[in-house]
Amino acid sequence: MSLPGLIIIGFGGHARSVADVALACGFGALLFVDPRARPGENFLGHPVQAAWPEGDGFGDWRAMPASGDGQRRAAQMAEARQRGRRIATLIAPTATVGVGATVAEGCFVAQHAHIGPMAAVAEGCIVNTGAAVEHEARIGAFSHISVRATVAGRAQIGAYNFIGAGATVIDRVTLADGITLGAGGVAPYDIAAPGIYVGIPARLLSKAASS
Q: pTM (2 decimals)?
């Protein structure tokens, strides 16, 4: 039995991945909502429109934020809730979730990703294709663990973080809120100041605008 329809908020690159997993999870129909939509635009026959849908036909449809940016994703989720929409959580059929692990509302766990035992992923997070969040790790709200990145056991990732493609956060390391770890970087020690960090070991490239 198929699930009700899904409103995917946004139509950028990440929205395509959301659509792929939503269909694999059994959602019967998709609708993309993006203010930049062009007339008649669609994705594999699923419509893309600028305005939120109205009417009884969409009453039980759920919503899913689909921006790759954490701040924007949080705004999308807030708007959906203000409109009275239930927020979906998507876990791909090929992903694995360990015993005792928790994945909060609005999270997207992509194909072949892994959430280890007793790990906790807060709301609105992305654990992207082939990424691993290992045992007892903690991921803060609206963070993005990118393609094939690894958050090792008992690491603590703050809110609104971006762990780039192929990057690694070593066991028990803590990253504060608002940190970007560039692609392929390695964080072998705690990082307290928000900003962009790159390299092996990770070094500060630029401070966050507010710091």
A: 0.95
